[in-house]
């Protein structure tokens, strides 16, 4: 059909009876007005929000299906960002390959030393802790017997012993049941996945340390020229956020572990070193990690040393947490973690649901990095503002 014939038929259709062009414009205006008022804007934003949430849900489900590859990749990326300043320093005096190997071996030695110290300390202190736990359990049992004398009903020693025996028998029955065997097989499979994920993590980490800048430049080569400055700024913000978060959290975790560990050692609480290591590792989960580790240390002190020492340990834990929240966090983590406490809590919850303990550790730095990138693309980042004059020239 030619353009002239199409135009003539269009004009004939417009001049048919019952069709008035002004009325059609008014109807179209009413339709536009329906979507332009408060309810229409709210419906549009709600549909957009539901679409974004659906994409996030699909992505999370996809990540869970390939978590064996995704989680090591994310952990390696965050660790590489934290170690990248050290790699750049070593590159000034040696080749990129030798710099990558030096940083990689140093990081593995430090992490391996922490793990080895934790295992050795637990093995050395375990018999003492078991003995004190048995004594503490006997004290609790005696307290229950003493309290039962003041109750309106009688609770004899035989009944208490029977309840304990029933609990022990229930545990023994579970250990010899088929469910425990299935759980053991599942545990072996999980251990195999953990080993495979750890090996993959180490391999990816080495290549990020060796060729991280080249890999990023390869991705940037596919970006249109007009978007290149913002992509570069987004990458720089992500590296700074990940690196600053890990380094800042490590400093805060070291202070927490040192303060609580010294207090436990002075008070004579068993497993002081492994408990300090647990405090260090748990501090990488913001808001709740150090608190949970402090409660664990208090419980160990309660079982092994009694109420007075446990209260002293609890006071030390509260003091250290207050020092962290009011002094260290604002100074060390001001730029790396510029998120509201509610956002951190929601990120922790969603990360725990999606990825368990590893998800809880990764949720906050990923959220902080996403927010840093959003600020770049919305013109709220200092780095993007600094690049605007250069791009204008």
UniProtKB/TrEMBL annotation:
Keywords: Cell membrane, Membrane, Transmembrane, Transmembrane helix, Transport. It is a multi-pass membrane protein. It is found in: Cell membrane. The keyword Hydrolase does not apply. The chain crosses the membrane at residues 47-63, 69-90, 97-119, 184-209, 257-285, 291-320, 356-374. InterPro entries: AI-2E-like. PANTHER family: PERMEASE PERM-RELATED (PTHR21716:SF53), TRANSMEMBRANE PROTEIN (PTHR21716). This is AI-2E family transporter. It comes from Zhihengliuella salsuginis. The lineage of its organism: Bacteria, Bacillati, Actinomycetota, Actinomycetes, Micrococcales.
């Amino acid at each position: 059909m030619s353009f002239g014939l199409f135009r003539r038929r269009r004009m004939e259709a417009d001049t048919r009876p019952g069709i008035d062009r002004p009325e059609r414009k008014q109807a179209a205006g009413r339709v536009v007005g329906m979507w332009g008022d408060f309810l229409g804007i709210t419906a549009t934003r709600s549909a957009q929000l539901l679409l974004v949430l659906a994409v996030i849900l699909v992505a999370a489900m996809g990540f869970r299906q390939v978590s064996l590859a995704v989680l090591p990749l994310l952990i390696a990326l965050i660790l590489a960002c934290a170690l990248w300043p050290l790699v750049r320093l070593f590159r000034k005096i040696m080749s990129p390959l030798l710099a990558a190997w030096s940083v990689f071996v140093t990081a593995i030695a430090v992490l391996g030393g922490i793990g080895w110290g934790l295992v050795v300390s637990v093995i050395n202190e375990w018999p003492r802790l078991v003995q004190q736990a048995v004594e503490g359990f006997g004290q609790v049992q005696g307290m229950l017997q003493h309290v039962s004398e003041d109750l309106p009903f009688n609770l004899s020693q035989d009944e208490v012993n029977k309840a304990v025996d029933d609990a022990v028998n229930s545990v023994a029955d579970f250990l010899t049941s088929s469910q425990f065997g299935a759980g053991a097989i599942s545990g072996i499979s999980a251990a195999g996945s953990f080993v495979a994920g750890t090996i993959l993590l180490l391999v990816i980490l080495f290549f990020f340390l060796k060729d991280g800048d080249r890999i990023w430049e390869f991705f940037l080569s596919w970006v249109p020229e007009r978007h290149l400055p913002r992509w570069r700024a987004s990458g720089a913000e992500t590296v700074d956020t990940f690196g600053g978060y890990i380094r800042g959290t490590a400093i805060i975790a070291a202070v927490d572990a040192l303060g609580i560990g010294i207090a436990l050692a002075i008070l004579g609480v068993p497993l002081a070193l492994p408990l300090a290591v647990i405090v260090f590792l748990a501090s990488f989960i913001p808001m709740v990690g150090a608190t949970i580790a402090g409660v664990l240390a208090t419980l160990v002190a309660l079982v092994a040393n009694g109420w007075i020492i446990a209260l002293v340990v609890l006071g030390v834990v509260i003091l250290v947490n207050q020092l962290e929240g009011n002094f260290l966090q604002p100074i060390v983590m001001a730029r790396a973690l510029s998120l509201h406490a509610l956002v951190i809590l929601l990120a922790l919850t969603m990360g725990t649901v999606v990825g368990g303990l590893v998800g809880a550790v990764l949720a906050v730095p990923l959220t902080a990095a996403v927010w840093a990138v959003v600020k770049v693309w919305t013109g709220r980042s200092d780095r993007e503002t600094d690049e605007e004059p250069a791009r204008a020239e």
